[in-house]
Amino acid sequence: MLIKYLGFCWSKHASSCQRQYPTVIEELCHQFSLADIKESTKKFDEDQIIGTGDFCIVYKGFLQNNGVTDDTVVIKRIRGSGEKELKQFKNEIELLCQLRHPNLITLLGFCVHKDEKIVVYEHMANGSLHDRLYCSDVKKEPLTWKHRLKICIGAAHGLHYLHTGAKRTIFHRDITPYKILLDRNMVAKLADFRLSLKGPHYASKPKPKTISKDGFIGTYGYVAPEISENNTLTEKCDVYSFGVVLLEVVCKDKLKNVEKRQKHPVEENIDPNLKGKIAPECWEVFIDITERCLKFDPDERPAMGEVEVQLELALSLQEEADMRNTCDDYTLLSMTIIN
């Protein structure tokens, strides 16, 4: 259950991670000292950097578990100390410290010290879905079709939980392959909740939420048309973004552009690594739910619960077909144009 307001009361230049936090935060989320963070990253050594962005630097770190073993963690050091950065930092902690699901990234703790704002997460050994789809590392095998389906199912589980699993609907707002991370067992987990918003109570009739106040509309190519048109938001905006991800999983970035989708059949743009690997009965279910996620009218898009069910059915049909067909390639005879 989401707590209505966690009441972050820190000042901009809080001198300790232990100051000015209400008891509920202390109970829900561990607060690391800056000394702990520096030790785990070898004083923010450049060799520990595993990623950078406009708003943060990401380090690989090691924190002691029960004083015995060193656990690998990810440490995100926020760039900037303005009101915008503070708001996004608070937003992610407030959400993640209350959410528990196997398909969401796990927040291990945070630290605030003067201008330092740091978030600590579990380590995701296999990077992002984007990394694996576009991987240039010849040592890594391309993702198989069934691996891709399982990753999509995991991400769908996580997104369904955000929409229905808490007292209030949570809109992720930026579902892309970069935001779907993969652990050592290739389990998919949604990440990056800086810009997520809480919507209406789940049981109530959903109303569009105006989002013009922060100026963020999403990542180009994944944004639902109604956001671009009138800056309103419902859970169906996430569904649309997820539909783009489903298309990218099978075609990479060939049909991310709407105009290309309306002119070129999906089947002619399938990733060469998947040619002959997709059973027709599986494809029929997969492309149908993908097409429905991408409907222009948000009311015509399915809920994430239905997306989950259909993806699981697609995987089941693929597995059944593979048991019957042990040597021949599959042929897809359909030609799907997504309008």
Q: What's the arrangement of secondary structure elements?
A:
Layout: H1 23-28, H2 34-40, E1 49-52, E2 56-65, E3 69-78, H3 83-96, E4 107-113, E5 116-122, H4 129-133, H5 145-164, E6 168-171, E7 180-182, E8 188-190, E9 197-201, E10 209-210, H6 225-230, E11 232-233, H7 235-251, H8 258-261, H9 280-293, H10 304-324
Antiparallel strand pairs: 1-2, 2-3, 3-5, 4-5, 6-9, 7-8, 10-11
Structural features:
two-stranded antiparallel ribbon, Phosphorylase Kinase, domain 1, Transferase(Phosphotransferase), domain 1, alpha+beta, 339 residues, disordered N terminus
Q: What is this structure, in a nutshell?
A:
The chain has helices spanning 23-28, 34-40, 83-96, 129-133, 145-164, 225-230, 235-251, 258-261, 280-293, 304-324; strands spanning 49-52, 56-65, 69-78, 107-113, 116-122, 168-171, 180-182, 188-190, 197-201, 209-210, 232-233. It is of the alpha+beta class. Pfam families: PK_Tyr_Ser-Thr.
Can you describe this structure?
One of its GO terms (molecular function) is transmembrane receptor protein tyrosine kinase activity. There is one protein chain. With 339 residues, the chain is α+β, with helices and mostly antiparallel strands. It has two domains: 23-122, Phosphorylase Kinase, domain 1 (2-Layer Sandwich), CATH 3.30.200; 129-324, Transferase(Phosphotransferase) domain 1 (Transferase(Phosphotransferase), domain 1, Orthogonal Bundle). Helices cover 34% and strands 17% of the residues. The chain contains ten helices and eleven strands. The strands form four sheets. Strands 1-2-3-5-4 form a five-stranded antiparallel sheet, sandwiched between helices. A two-stranded antiparallel sheet has the order 6-9. A hairpin with a 3-residue loop joins strand 2 and strand 3 (69-78). The longest helix is centred in the C-terminal third of the chain and has 21 residues, at 304-324. The radius of gyration is 21 Å and the shape is globular.
